[in-house]
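Session log. Operator J.P. requested a structure for one protein chain; no other inputs attached. Running the standard single-chain path with token output.
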Amino acid sequence: MFTVTQSTPRPDQVPKAGLLLPVIPEEVYRQWQEIVNLIARLAKVPACLLMRVDHDDIEVFVSSQAAENPYTCGEKEHLFGSGLYCERVINSNEQLQVANALASSEWCDNPDLAHGMICYLGFPIRLSSGTIFGTLCILDRQERHFEQETIELLEKMRCLVEANLQLHISERRHLLLAENALDNIWSMGADRTFTYISPSIEVLTGYTPHEYLQLTLEQILCPASFSVADEYLHELIKSLHAGEPLRPFRGELELCQKDGSSIWTEVHVNPLVDSEGTFVELVGITRDITERKRYEYEIIRARVAAESSSKVASEMMGAIAHQWRQPLSTVDMVVQSIRKAFEVNRLDHDFITRAVIDARRQITFMSDTINTFRSFFHATAEKTFFDTGVIIRDVITLLEQPLGSNKITLATSLQRCSPVLGNPHEFQQVLMNILINAQEAIVAGRSASHHEPGSIVISQQQQGNQLKIMIQDNGGGIDPAVEPRIFEPYFTTKKESGGSGIGLYLSKMIIEKSMQGSLTVTNQDGGAIFTICLQGAAHV
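Structure written below.
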């Protein structure tokens, strides 16, 4: 008989509710049932038990299935101070073997004796943290000294149960982390089908996990982002077939939401391989970066506004010089006429009156020009309802001189339309960006091919509540190879001339994000057509 001095368990060994009482899956429970049945049969004992600690009690969790076994699953005994064999195992955290409990008075209060179980062999079942889950033990009604093979069998089975239990707890912990994480966690097979989606996908996209599992990548990602993901997955398959290392992925992808909108996310993907290096699946984390993209947009917007204002200011200085040249010349002629009239003694009251009227007319014109330019450079950032036709005419006034000096005619066909909601200054900047781009395209095309004189046509019409503004030029159009990227930030075909590639990007952001409209471009009749669609006030 083997005995161990009884001791009080440390607080960190006492099981806590919820921590050591995980819900054991039915499949795991069946495996444990097979284990205790096998041990009882091989050891030739009436009872093999897997006991579980439940607060201050100990419970028969799994019991070998045999007629001579008196223990049934769910039975409980008070653990501490009860005199049970299992109490001794848990207190000592060590193996216990009792050949015949009747030979020692220390077991006289043991409840197991009521079943005639005088022989015992048991091991503690521990978690990796050191806390005790319970015991694995065998009991017999006759005195026995178990053979070493039986002890080793029970020890190995104990290790198997511990590993099985730890794996389940680890899986449960990771599942809880995944299901409560703000970031979305997912896994995908090589066939591009999702195998798991964490619940946070509903916050991110509006789809439930079940709905999302039914979607294809093309339905999940916006077209440009799908192309990026598709390229990565093709490379992954190539690497798999070639036996090459599998590259992880990190990038920004635009996800489609259930309501038809989209959201920018940062996606991290890692290929998961087993111990032999065989590909298992892709594991990914998707994070909402809406706020970050908004800050990036504001930074780009501030930069492009500064660059655009500088560029426009240069154009405006030329326009001011042109607008003032004629009135200054007229004022000079008035002054000269006064001097000559004085020299020939013809400077009477009527002459002075006419000269003052002529001079004041020219000065008023110059003052009006200054007011027009001032309104462009000192606009507020507030949204208001405004007439797009008025803004178009103001922009034409500002660009009339530089367009004329480049021999570019500008024609308009402006239908009176409903007001739109937005920032008039921002809309003015959009028109300036498009028209200056058209001017540069015409000048570049003329120097390259000497085609016909430049022409820009601005038309505006309304159908229902929708306003459509079209700006068409004959500058040769946009290269089809770069047309899909024309609105991307920092993309430019004019690096040699100092183009930044953010003017058209900002224009699209203003129209689509700030004014809830659309800005598109197509090629037609040897030039480009930029189309702006906006909702009239009745719809806003």
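Operator note: The chain has three domains: 11-171, 181-288, 295-535.
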